[in-house]
Amino acid sequence: MEKNAKERAAALLAEMTLEEKIYQVTADMIFEVDGEYEKKRNPMHGSYRNPGHFMHHTREKPAGPAEVTKQINEDVRHSIEAQPHSIPPIENGEALHGAQWGMCTNFPQPIGLASTFNPELVEEVAGAIGRECAAAGVRQVFSPVVNIVRDCRWGRTVETYGEDVKLTGDMGAAMCRGLQKNGVIATPKHFADNYGAGGRDSNYSDTSERTMREVFLPPFKACFDAGAQSVMAAYNAWEGVPCSANRRLLTGILRDEWGFEGFVVSDYSGVEGVYSAHRCAENYPQAAAKALKAGLDVILPYDSYGAVLEAVEKGYITEKELDRNVLRVLTAKFSIGLFDGPYKNPDEAEKTVRCDEHKALALKAARQAVILLKNNGVLPLKKDKIKKIGVFGQSANLIPIGSNYSGPYGTPWQGDDAPAPLEALREFLGDTVQVVFADSAEIEKIAPQCDANIYFTSIIEGEGSDRSSLKLPDVTQFKNRDGEGGLIVDAAKQAITDNQEQSIKKMFAANACGVVVLQNGAPVDMTGWIDDAGAVIESWYPGEQGARAVVEILFGITNPSAKLPLTIPKSVGQLPLYYSYKPSGRGYAYCDSDGKPLYPFGFGLSYTEFEIINAAAEARGGGVEVEFDIKNTGCCDGAQVVQLYLGTYNCGVARPLKELKAYKRVELKKGETRKVALRLEKEDFAFYDEEMRFGTHNARHRLMLGTSSDDIICEFEVETKNGKITVAQ
Predict the structure, then answer these.
(1) Residue pair 582/403 in contact by the 8 Å Cβ criterion
(2) How far apart are the first and last CA of the chain?
(3) pLDDT above 60 (res 483)
(4) DSSP H helical ranges for 406-564
(5) Which secondary structure element, helix H or strand E, spans residue 47, and what is its range?
(6) CA distance 179 to 65
(7) Cα separation of 523 and 131, whole Å?
(8) How many secondary structure helices (H) and strands (E) does the chain include?
(9) d(Cα 100, Cα 414) in Å, to the nearest integer?
């Protein structure tokens, strides 16, 4: 951080009263943004949930960017005028896959962004999100989520970048760079290891320190190295201490080891949970003191002024100790220019939010996020050979953004030029093809009449939606008397239940030329129908332009290039399942399962073919470079994600059989050949030894080059000894 920001913060802190200091470490959030709003809002708080999040839920027409910006400006003005030292508040919000203060550009959910294996693209997306946040005056966002998924039953899998440490760290760092360069404070979360056994959200973590340091902490470190100025503590406890009050995490590792100079915020009501959930304090004031002394700096989201004041008055925390927390908050405010430019231009917000450039970027991201999992020659569909196409599944009529952190509170996201899949199909096919959208009950009648059929799956995923089953759920859809679809029940509508698995099987039984388009946030169990499927596309929730991207891939306008950022199991009984497991003393299978996934990490098909030849590895510049030629030998232009994995052995400790260490998305014209190099630095060979000392210890390593974690094309032997790296010839 700038030295000037620290100096200005320290000078201001020296003039502040205890009351002012306490307000800087407390926050407020008010849901009802109406005529009574200013009377309810306490302008003294230093952190505030932006009102734009709540301005829409009682209105027929959503508030536009200019209106939201004016309200936030008024918020800030009210605070500056009320503060004895004119300290502006940090207006905060969410931004997992788009600025969530209104109807902003909606990009693919994070699990889809991870599938691009393209950090440069993700940084570009984050830049657009940052611009739309900053345009309205939202200066801190609680993003990205860099928790590692080891059990996909966790409902928040959709918010993550998957199961891999390297990929998650790269994607999280890219998001932080894109946000921070726009003066928006990135807040990676949830620190740390935010779910427990069985994928249960926020449950107690019994993760060992070795696993914590090898798996769950590195992505956070990558975010801080990329400039993130804040971090959100997790709800769960680690080693018996709630993360919100865990001195080992928030001071020992975060600040003393990593040198983090930013500020720590609690998850919503996380500090209250120190006593109410974890029962590690007698009351709220004690819990607040424990958290602030441990290294947490801002208590979110509601007014906790009284609790902190009581903590000081009763001696649970001293004013001098509190000064450390306040200084970190003030330094961040100065560093992003909040004091020097607290207000935003409503007209500029109108020009920025959902501008043509951002919508085009949403389409570009969706094109690279959609994965082709299976194709028995069904795809790409030929527009000139199809006269009639059948479409089934209620999500065909919904914009594929997912319900998780999509749009403002209490109001569905909506926007112009954002079609549902059915609309995108009709838009693309025009009058030349008959598109029939029908109930699943009509599949056996309609599917045989069509040249091709598409089933769009439905599932609700996100925070608070942990699953015990991975199968597609039965879906209830509603139709009124006029036959129009809807999602709101009233007396004039009847419910129709769709057993999705049975419907998919009926579709393929009626006509082999069919495609399943998965719209989901985490893996689903496909074993009941995958053998019958002609083609399967994993689209995740691809965002506001995602329907167009899916249609382009269905008809070969875009060649799919995305790869799986996590392992897809055959069934829930295999969980937890991930590719980077450590050696087993007996085996990995059950008596009724071979232990292998349905689809491995890094997997994804293309409409063209690629060949990797002339691969060679050489120790160079203190690291290792793997060079190879890659050729597009197929029938069309395309992109391949080449992946380099590392396995370590003869090192005194058990290491994962393979870990992703480098990758590159390579675009190639039909027939084109390109030379590519992937480099590993000395640190990429480092690990924790028996004494938990991190370094490049004496060991043997195997480098594995391939196109997925299971598709390894060639291998190289490497040795690290006495600080020197050699490659076997």
Answers:
(1) no
(2) 46
(3) no
(4) 421-429, 443-446, 500-510, 546-554
(5) strand 47-49
(6) 19
(7) 32
(8) 20, 30
(9) 12
Helix (H) or strand (E) holding 299: none
Q: Choose among 111, 107, 109: nearest CA to 130.
A: 107
Mean pLDDT of 302-318: 97
Closest CA to 118 of 707, 679, 675, 639: 639
Question: Which amino acid is residue 417, in one-letter code?
Answer: D
pTM: 0.95
For 131-145, 350-364, 470-484, 679-693, which range has the lowest pLDDT when averaged over its residues? 470-484
Residue 243: burial class (beta carbons within 10 Å; 0-12, 13-18, 19+): buried
Nearest to 524 by CA among 584, 455, 592: 455
Tell me the residue length of the chain: 729
Amino acid 477: pLDDT: 63
Report DSSP letters for 671-710, one per residue.
Answer: T-EEEEEEEE-GGGG-EE-TT--EE--SEEEEEEEESSSS
Residue 652 sits at the vertex; the CA angle it makes with 650 and 656, to the nearest 5 degrees, is: 70
**Cis link prior to 346 (omega < 30° from 0)?**
no
- Which 3 state secondary structure label does DSSP give 552? helix
Name 442's Cβ contacts closer than 8 Å, sequence gap at least 6. none
Q: Nearest to residue 297, comparing CAs of 335, 338, 257, 254? A: 254
Of 103, 173, 112, which is closest to residue 132 (Cα–Cα)?
A: 103
Alpha carbon separation from 337 to 135, 332, 341, 614, 712 (Å, rounded)? 14, 9, 6, 52, 49
Task: Give the whole-angstrom CA distance, residue 191 versus residue 223.
Answer: 12
Residue 72, token pair as written in the block: 């936030």
The structure tokens listed for 639 are 């992109």
Coil/strand/helix, residue 147: coil
Q: What is the pLDDT of residues 124-145, one digit of tens each?
A: 999 999 999 999 999 999 999 9
- Contacts with 617 (C-beta within 8 Å, 6 or more apart), sequence order: 624, 625, 626, 627, 703, 716, 718, 727
* 90 token code pair: 């940090």
Is residue 485 over pLDDT 80?
A: no
Judged against a pLDDT cut of 80, whether residue 478 lies above it is answered with: no
pLDDT at 488 over 50: no
Q: What is d(CA 128, CA 353) in angstroms, rounded to the nearest whole number?
A: 9
Taking residue 715's Cβ as centre, other Cβ atoms within 10 Å add up to 14
27 touches 302 (CB < 8 A): yes
Surface-to-core class of residue 377, CB atoms within 10 Å of its CB (0-12 exposed, 13-18 middle, 19+ buried): exposed
Residue recorded with tokens 């307000």? 23
Nearest C-alpha neighbor of 52 from the set 131, 137, 113, 110: 137
- In 10 A of CB 60, how many CB atoms? 6
Mean pLDDT: which of 45-59, 195-209, 480-494, 674-688 is highest? 674-688
Could you read off the pLDDT of 541-571 as tens digits, one per residue?
A: 999 999 999 999 999 999 999 999 999 999 9
Q: How confident is the model at residue 491 (pLDDT cuts 50, 70, 90)?
A: very low
65 φ, ψ to 5°? -55, -40
Instruction: Give buried/exposed letters for 291-312 (b at 16+ CB in 10 A, else e).
Output: bbbbbbbbbbbbbbbebbbbbb
Q: What one-character-per-residue DSSP string does 603-650 give?
A: --B-SS-EEEEEEEEEEETTEEEEEEEEEE-SSS-EEEEEEEEEEEES
Task: State the alpha helices, DSSP H only, in 214-354.
Answer: 218-225, 247, 270-276, 284-294, 305-313, 319-335, 346-352
